[in-house]
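Exercise: predict the fold of this chain.
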Amino acid sequence: MAGVLLIIMLIFGFLIWLILISQKNSNTSVDQSNAKDAKPIIKVRCTNGHINGYYVEGGLFKGKKYLFGKLAAEGTFFNGVQTGQGKEYYDNAQIKYEGQFVNGYWSGKGRRFDENGKLKYVGQFANGYASGQGRLFDANGNLKCEGQFARLPGNTEHVKDPSVPSGRCKEYYDTGQLKYEGEFKSGIWHGDGKLFDEIGNLIYVGKFSNGKPARKS
């Protein structure tokens, strides 16, 4: 009788062992499946820092770029150079630019922010500067100017904002009332235009030169 009970206990224990092994194998396969689907994070070295991310189609690398230990940019990169949709950050971690990149430069549609995170410009960019159709905002978020923008000619190394209205644009008072509509040259009223007072009355129509009405003497 004791032998029969021993055999029954051994069989029962063996069945429990099989069940536990089956559950373990099932859990292991799920984990392996998840590991297979997940993209492994890779650290790629670049000048003065590294990029954490993973490879995607076309040989692009998607991730976050750190320079001197701080987050500098995120998006897609090719050979360490940013391309396509992405973001760039100030040293204080505030977003600086969000939009399209070409060969590491802001190019295409984008938005530029100040160091406090307030929107500064939205529109077209080329080679790292506002260029083409866009809208410029002041520090309070009010629309300041809209129209065509271009980079100032010459050496702009020490110019804080080298992209200025150029071509046909509209400029506004702080109240939002239209102030000037017409041609600009290097950020200054120059050419044909209209000037309005702060309540919207038209006060001058004609030629402008270096920011002033070119009135005939």
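Check your answer against the key: The chain has one helix and 15 strands.
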